[in-house]
Amino acid sequence: MINFLLFPIIVPFFVAMVLLFFPSKVKAQRTITMLALVINLVISLRLIHLVHTKGIQVVTLGSWDAPFGISMVSDMFSALLVTSTSIIALFVVWTSMFSVGIEREKHFYYPGILFLLTGVNGAFTTGDIFNMFVFFEVLLMASYLLIVLGGEKKQLRESIKYILVNVTSSALFVITVGYLYAVVGTLNMADISQKIAQVNQPGILTVIAVLFLVVFGFKSAIFPLFFWLPKSYAAPPIPVLALFGALLTKVGVYAIIRTYTLFFIHDTAFTHELLMILSIITIVFGLIGALAYFDVKQIIIYNIIIAVGVILFGASIMNETAMEGAIFYLLHDILLKGALFLLIGVLIHVTGTTNLRKMGGVLSTHPVLAWSYLIAAFGLVGIPPLSGFIGKLLIVKGAIEGDELILSLVILLSSLGVLLSVIRIFIHAFWGEAPQEVMYKKDAHYRALLVPAVIITAITVFYGVGAEVLMPYVTQATSTLMNPLEYIQAVLGGA
Amino acid sequence: MEILMSFVIGFLFMAAVYLMLSRSLLRIIIGTAVLSHGAHLLLLTMGGFGGDAPPVLQHGETSYVDPLPQALILTAIVISFGVTAFFLVLAYRSYQELETDNMNLLRGIDEDD
What does the alpha-carbon distance between residue A161 and residue A164 come to, in Å, rounded to a whole number? Predict the structure, then answer.
């Protein structure tokens, strides 16, 4: 047994605790945080390699055997997500140094980000449903801090609603875990899966499945439960928004995929059908939002909701191809949403506004920003050979294999809507003439912000072009998700 | 016992929902606290009652209490107290800053962003 898979949780947690002691030494905070994140990235890459060569990694804390102790499990799916998380966090912190302002940095901004990472990585890695709740709370606590840090009027107003929604859904999470415990009498995820297989999923477990969908639906912003997201996410500064947009909803998506491929697989007629319908409606509502606004932040925020719908649609089909597509698209979306938000951040810095009507002609003054944005936008829409294309192709192919021809057409048509929404930013902000009274900034600050945004855009391009290299890993992740027995055997030891 | 507990939990949820639907921020916070305590009570009940000895296996006890729900509640209570404390501080700060605790007045409009 190797404890290696615990490092992505422990490293940020430990560093964050150390950083709490000297909040006003900003330079030290920045250096140590960057160092920790680089270490974290190296560790998570090594973890992928370890899982790839040696199979699923399991640690049972305190060496209490699996169904009784708490187990931490790292299969390929979670290892890939942990790695994407590390990449995004690295670039967000890099940008933060130039944009969140010294006051925020002095008030525990970096520890907040590191605690958020602890929670996110923990939720991806845990093999125990109650610990998933605990790690959700860790990341939510950190996100409460980050969303309100700075104390602007708008932030205070929106964070009240954000916290209220999340407290309610957390209470529901506890209730659901209680129901599940009453029915199957265990909390270990592998053991739950096995027990549910033994009783062949009676109706009560379908109820619990839907309750889980509601709980995680709040976090991942699927159709009826996304109402809180657009305004709450618009309140904090751009780097925080990038981190939230890239990671927080994806944790909910991860939890839905995990529970719906590991627990509730014996009677999919109702639950997965429900998930499919909800994800399609999510896409439609996200599109309406993305096309309705003339505010750059809101347009990209609504694109988060669309992506969640696409990923969950892929997952709900439950065949190999669509699941591969869902995983690929999930990773793509984490990286690309990070890139887009950082680029939008630069655009907002340059023009000094988020309103598209007040922008124009940035292409002629800031060509690098404009072309990077165009590439990122095309990646989001799914123009080959960029990364969105491969994910969507696999999802649609899987949907056709699973006889969901009409719904797969919705996915394809939604790409057009996404194209329209993001290209509108390009047309209004980058093309045309600048409004006369505005002088666009082009200072050292602009260049400092641009570098991380451009690098992460380049990474998303490599992610699409180099898909051939990454596919074995995605395939391995898919095979674990599609055959829960692998996961169960790894955790419970051949039982 | 389970029947009685169901009534208590139901009452707590009812009170929580009533409080959370009111306009005053302070009432909403109390509502969330009551809601989470209802959830904890439910978690305890879900473990099942019965058993009157502590869960020590060596002494030959056959009718012992399930220890797991209690461990879970301990964790959940700590978390919910932490969140409630944070929420109260946030409410105080936003009362200072926004000069209202009426949720109707906290509705954001696009123009003032």
Answer: 5
DSSP lists the bridge partners of residue A300 as none
Q: What's the confidence (pLDDT) of residue A322?
A: 92
> Which run of H or of E encompasses A73?
strand A71-74
Residues of A within 8 A of B39 (CB-CB) are 171-172, 174-175, 178
The answer to whether the beta carbons of residues A254 and A479 sit under 8 Å apart is: no
pTM: 0.93
- Calpha distance A123→B11 (Å, rounded): 32
Nearest-CA distance from B97 to chain A in Å? Answer: 7
Q: Is B54 helix (H, G, I), strand (E, B) or coil?
A: coil
* pLDDT tens per residue, range A116-149: 999 999 999 998 999 999 999 999 999 999 999 9
Cα gap A206→A264, rounded to integer Å: 7
- Give the whole-angstrom CA distance, residue A282 versus residue A290: 12
At A385-433, the pLDDT tens digits run 888 899 999 999 999 998 888 888 989 999 999 999 999 999 988 887 7
Q: Which fold has domain B1-49+65-98?
A: Helix Hairpins (1.10.287)
The minimal CB distance from A174 to the residues B39, B87, B93 is found for B39
Beta-carbon count within 10 A of A77 CB: 27
